[in-house]
Design a protein that fits this description.
Length: 280
């Protein structure tokens, strides 16, 4: 079927392919043998070759690299914290005579606390000085910590341990402070190969910086990782970093998560969704 393959370069295969062969380009590293006739070593630009011979099909996606890492948002994905977080923001603004409704916080889920406090203040006609903003951010942090440990969603422990056993690297990316983000996990925190929290980035979600930093700490390219998110701003951040996204409908309806690659009801469906996206 593929006799007469004679020569090739970075951009094409020349030789005995049938005249109707179609090449759809895409960069992949190759070290492979095709029916014992070709040995390639290097980087070649191709994705798949479709032959018009009895419907024969050679899919070069077979050589795509497997999934290496899963990156999780924390609040509303692994930890049941969004309601308590909204309460902490309400109490933060209460001394100023401003009432913050839970939906105002939910709509901005994923933003760092300092950024969100500034935004909420502006929405209520307030301009905060840098000193006020710093003080309110610390106050929110203290209030959130005072509310006590927050529960994990059902299935978190089993999911993290299963992915770890499969050899996948794990990370969390959160707009919260590191100490607060890690507190609910206890010994499970040791399963995370990378943690990116609010104090470690200059631009929070929906900017790509948090997820790009996680990829850097994991040492994994974007095409070999998948993000699990629950909010539109988080999905936007992950997509801007070139990542695929599984969204869970724990705090938002599916129609608000439509920019994700896969939408599932909860964490119990995440492993199956990983298989859909080509996870090993």
């Amino acid at each position: 079927m593929m006799g007469g393959w004679a020569s090739f370069n970075k951009y094409s295969l020349l030789g005995g392919l049938r005249s109707a062969a179609q090449v759809i380009s895409y960069e992949i590293p190759l070290t492979l043998s095709v029916v014992g006739l070709i040995l390639l070593s290097g980087t070649m630009s191709l994705n798949r070759i479709v032959l018009d011979q009895a419907g024969s099909f050679l899919d070069w996606n077979l050589w795509k690299q497997p999934l290496a890492a899963v990156i999780f948002d924390v609040d509303g994905v692994l930890v049941q914290s969004v309601e308590r977080n909204a309460e902490a923001y309400r109490r933060t603004f209460e001394p100023l005579g401003v009432r913050i409704e839970p939906q105002e916080v939910f709509a901005n889920e994923g933003r760092g606390s300092r950024v969100l406090i500034e935004r909420l203040a502006r929405d209520h006609g307030m301009a905060l000085s840098a000193a006020q903003l710093d003080g309110m951010t610390r106050h929110h942090h203290d209030l959130l910590a005072s509310l006590g440990p927050m529960p994990l969603y059902p299935g978190v422990e089993a999911l993290l341990e299963s992915l770890h056993r499969r050899g996948l690297r794990l990370a969390i990316v959160t707009g919260n402070w590191r100490a607060i983000a890690l507190a609910p996990f206890g010994q499970l925190a040791s399963l995370f190969d990378a943690v990116v929290s609010a104090e470690e980035v200059t631009r929070t979600k929906p900017d790509a910086e948090p997820y790009r930093r996680a990829l850097g700490e994991l040492g994994v390219p974007a095409e070999r990782a998948v993000v699990v998110e629950n909010a539109p701003l988080g999905i936007e951040s992950a997509k801007a970093a070139g990542l695929r996204v599984i969204a869970v409908t724990t705090t938002n309806p599916a129609d608000r998560l439509r920019d994700a690659d896969v939408v599932v009801a909860d964490l119990l469906d995440v492993e199956r969704a990983l298989e859909t996206l080509g996870g090993r």
